[in-house]
Amino acid sequence: MRMQGDDSAEGRSRVGDAAARLAQDTAQLARHEILAVQSEVRAALRRIGAGGALLSAAGVCGLLALWSAHETALRTLEPALPGARAPAVLTCAYATGAATLGVAARNRVRAAGQASADALDRAREAVPTGVRRGEGSD
């Protein structure tokens, strides 16, 4: 004759086996997902690496073109401006361009920062006062 507590060990064993299988399946699924993500990341890094190399080569070519343009401008100005005046004129032109571009860049960055601050202020105003202070309405 069976008593009420006899099947409890067998039932616990089945539940334990099911939990162990579930843990193994979950671990295996997690391993497969991690391997898939690693594969995708490696492929993306290879593409980024190739793009970076191409971008570096483009930068070198741009720098060489700029140097060539500088030499051309210098040789063009030398007959008209004797002595060290041609390099001085180019230096002033480059300095003016750099200063102008620097001011323009600074203004753009400040404008972007101000736009972000304004957006945060608008978002802060849209949030009810009680929520901002952590006084949720339960």
Please give a structural write-up.
With about 140 residues, this protein is an all-alpha fold. The chain has three helices and no strands. The protein has helices at about 10-75, 85-125, 130. The mean pLDDT is about 85.
Topology summary:
Blueprint: H1 8-77, H2 85-126, H3 129-132
Quick overview of this protein structure:
The chain is an all-alpha fold and 138 residues long. It is built from three helices and no strands. The two termini are 55 Å apart.
Q: Main β-sheet, in a few words?
A: none
The secondary-structure class comes to: mainly alpha
Q: What are the segments in which pLDDT stays under 50 over at least 5 consecutive residues? A: none
Name the average pLDDT. 84
State the shape. elongated
* Element pattern in H and E: HHH
- Helical content class: over 70%
Q: Strand tally, please? A: 0
- The amount of beta strand, in percent, is under 5%
Radius of gyration over all CA atoms, rounded: 35 Å
Number of helices: 3
What is the terminal separation in angstroms? 55 Å
Descriptors for this entry?
138 residues; mainly alpha; 3 helices; elongated
